[in-house]
Write a structure and sequence with these properties.
15 strands; Rossmann fold; TIM Barrel; alpha/beta; 4-stranded parallel β-sheet; 8-stranded parallel β-sheet
């Protein structure tokens, strides 16, 4: 964020210089002054800190220097060399206003008031080692409690051993069963929570110290659940109440009303919502479903969420719920809609997929003086250009004959990959950046890019000689 009376030096390349000036002028007036300097590199992203140190002279009195977001190299070393703070800006120029503090400041996503129970549904059919491995995966994805699921009619002789092993690894543990014997075994083994207990199985609490998750009998009976809550409230026993979320067309809307009524009747108790009946039994991307339910539990002050990952389309449900709870928590604190905090739940689309217009891309293309192809995407299609001109299409097959790469296998493969990404981005409305994988939100976990490594100035693609060497080595 820019501060009062700052003077900022923005570094860029030849092709982006005019656009950078336009963006900075568009946010005037500001509480900082600035200069723009291009260092003779065509593409700003190919600039390196080593090149900057070599070419940047006569800095003058600047508060800090902002370099392109994808500039490679160690900015700490550059800062010490130049004697002024250096920082990376955003990857896209259109995101610069927000980077400079022209967008509203929102609460961070480091906190939440919801704890996630991640259920290992098929635990009886897994070894203790496999259970521990799954637990670590769930923990990495955001789970707070590992829920050991018991299957009806399936023996679980190693339940006690599994709970002991999880506790020895410092996991918080719940045991999930409707069979009192399993609940007692899990509770005596050290489980922190037991789910689920009802009016007929409350006697289990005489045998164990774990915190119960209580439901009605039958599960959809609000009156039965109220009786259990009243009884436990009088006894002083800690508990969590769950009025059960039902699947669509099997009481879903009515179950939402039950949760609302439960919170209205008992404004101070702890409540859980298990969302598997909706996510698992609805063939829709679970990220959006998790977002809506997270918003609902935020409004109802529900602080416990039970997640399952059984169906293939729910394979990242824990990650999604973790991000969703954080977004809703921050949104609630800021008293604004849950918009603009993070794009991780927007796997298929993005808020601003096409940062540049066709006219702006034409300007970039006009400044290219070398044969290397650049690819950009606008709302009008895919634009491929080099010094010989620009081709625009929505179907990469149409322009292949015009690229003249039939005798260069490496180049053809590279452009094929990039055009496939560009076409998907255009079709779905996603950001496309040449040489970068598409961003699918929390559905994929990419290693953070190491911008401390240098990237050669010039082409974004291997030279013809280098490509031949790579292909030769791969064949070996």
């Amino acid at each position: 964020m820019a501060g009062m009376n700052e003077h900022i030096l923005f570094l860029t390349g030849k092709l982006a210089e005019k656009s950078l000036h336009r963006v900075l002028q568009s946010i005037q007036p500001t509480d900082f002054t600035y200069d723009v300097r291009q260092l003779g590199v065509s593409v700003a992203a190919l600039m390196t800190t080593q090149l900057i140190e070599k070419r940047l002279t006569n800095i003058g009195h600047v508060s800090r220097i902002v370099i392109p977001g994808r500039c490679r190299g160690d900015i700490d070393i550059l800062s010490r060399s130049l004697g002024v703070a250096v920082e990376r800006g955003p990857n896209e120029l259109k995101d610069l206003p927000a980077y400079l503090g022209r967008a509203s400041i929102k609460t961070g996503l480091d906190k939440s008031d919801v704890q996630i129970f991640a259920e290992i549904v098929d635990a009886p059919n897994m070894s203790v080692e496999e259970i521990i491995k799954r637990a670590y995966t769930y923990q990495q994805d955001g789970a707070d409690i590992i829920d050991v699921g018991c299957l009806p009619g399936t023996s679980f002789p190693h339940l006690k051993e599994a709970v002991h092993a999880l506790k020895s690894e410092n996991f918080k543990v719940s045991v999930d069963s409707l069979t009192p014997k399993d609940l007692i075994t899990g509770g005596l083994a050290g489980a922190d929570y037991l789910l689920s207990l009802d009016e007929k199985s409350l006697w289990v609490l005489e045998e164990v110290d774990a915190i119960p998750i209580v439901i009605g009998y039958p599960p959809s009976s609000a009156r039965s659940l109220y009786r259990v809550i009243d009884k436990l409230s009088v006894s002083g026993r800690n508990f969590i109440a769950d009025s059960i979320l039902d699947p669509i067309h099997f009481g879903f809307t009515e179950s939402i009303v039950r949760y609302r009524n439960l919170r209205k009747r008992y404004p101070d108790i702890e409540i859980m919502m298990g969302i598997g009946n909706l996510t698992e039994l609805t063939h829709a991307d679970s990220a959006g479903t998790n977002a809506i339910l997270a918003g609902m539990i935020s409004e109802l002050e529900i602080h416990h969420l039970l997640i399952t990952e059984v169906s293939e389309h729910c394979r990242y449900a824990v990650r999604e719920a973790d991000l969703a709870r954080r977004i809703m928590h921050a949104s609630k604190i800021d008293n604004v809609p849950p918009k603009g905090y993070n794009n991780g739940l927007m796997g298929l689309h993005e808020p601003e997929p096409f940062p540049y217009s066709v006219e702006e891309i034409k300007e970039f293309a006009a400044g290219v003086k070398d044969p290397n192809y650049r690819i950009q995407v606008s709302k009008d299609g895919i634009h491929t250009y080099n010094r010989d001109g620009m081709h625009t299409t929505t179907d990469p097959y149409e322009i292949y004959p015009d690229l003249h790469i039939e005798n260069d296998i490496g180049h053809a493969f590279y452009l094929g990959v990039e055009h496939a990404r560009a076409q998907i981005a255009w079709q779905l409305g996603k950001r496309y950046e040449q040489d970068e994988e598409l961003d699918w939100g929390v559905a994929t976990q990419k290693q953070p890019e190491n911008l401390g490594h240098y990237k050669p100035e010039g082409t974004t693609m291997h030279t013809r000689k280098a490509r031949k060497t790579i292909l030769k080595n791969r064949k070996k």
